[in-house]
Amino acid sequence: MYDKMTQEELLAKCNELERQVAETAEEASQRTKELSALMKGSKVVLEEKRFIDSARAIFDYCKDLIGATSGYIALLTDDGMENEVLFLESGGLPCDVNPSLPMPIRGLRAEAYQKNLAVYHNDFMHSEWEAYMPAGHVVLHNVMFAPLVLSGKTVGIIGLANKPRDFDDNDARMATGFGELAAIALQNSNNLDERSKAEQEREKVIADLKSALAEVKTLSGLLPICASCKKIRDDTGYWNQIEEYVSKRSEAQFSHSICPECAKILYPDLLLNKE
């Protein structure tokens, strides 16, 4: 086959093979970088406890891999109407927007929420969504939004912007993977919060039970009681009426009456009249 080629054709074939080898090597290098970044993000999910810390690390790995220079991670508010920004990276560009301003779910961002898919636009300043940008916002040459999906619902978003080259489908695929890691980190954080709350409630119940048990022990122990007036001496040495002492240490309530034996002594005339 090659013996019938001219020198020019053979040289062209060699150049083509060299180009294919270079492309294959570049693609392999890129796949290695992607795998390494995803592995680092996975490690963060396992190690970090606070979501804000996990989210920031995952965002940085994603941003650096894809080549974006700015972005943010935000969570959906309870009413489902706005983004609640955890942090914002401007990429060194001026941004005079008040961070406390609401970030409604609309425009291209709304598509990511509604479709549970990563979306991007490479000429954002000339798109229909540019009108939604508040005054003083950092210039967005291109943007990408990747969802954080839990139980089939987008509960947050990774925003990326200002990549020197255009975003592409592979960027969307990678951003989706990092969005999945961030969603897992969020779920882990929620589980830890719920477990912490349950442990606090358990400790309170134990403390209440110990307190109640201490009260029971006080009433079931040896009580110093006066042989004459029947007052009880407490731990401070003070003598209490028996009704007062018991009422303070239990749920018992007293209702006074007179037993038959005492009635005979105190009211003998009343009993004789009854007879």
Could you explain the architecture of this structure?
It is built from seven helices and eight strands, in the order H-H-E-E-E-H-E-E-E-H-E-E-H-H-H. The termini are far apart. It is elongated and about 145 Å long. 21% of the residues are buried. It folds into two domains: 12-193, GAF domain (Beta-Lactamase, 2-Layer Sandwich); 232-274, no CATH class. Strand 1 and strand 2 (82-89) form a beta hairpin. It is α+β, with helices and mostly antiparallel strands. The longest helix has 52 residues, at 169-220. Helix 1 packs parallel to helix 4 (169-220). The strands form two sheets. Strands 3-2-1-6-5-4 form a six-stranded antiparallel sheet, with helices on both faces. A two-stranded antiparallel ribbon has the order 7-8. The protein has helices at residues 7-47, 51-66, 107-115, 169-220, 242-249, 260-266, 268-274; strands spanning 70-76, 82-89, 103-104, 119-121, 143-150, 153-161, 232-233, 239-240. Helices cover 51% and strands 15% of the residues.
Can you summarize this structure?
With 275 residues, the chain is of the alpha+beta class.
Write the layout of secondary structure elements.
Blueprint: H1 7-47, H2 51-66, E1 70-76, E2 82-89, E3 103-104, H3 107-115, E4 119-121, E5 143-150, E6 153-161, H4 169-220, E7 232-233, E8 239-240, H5 242-249, H6 260-266, H7 268-274
Antiparallel strand pairs: 1-2, 1-6, 2-3, 4-5, 5-6, 7-8
Helix pairs in contact: 1-2, 1-4, 2-4
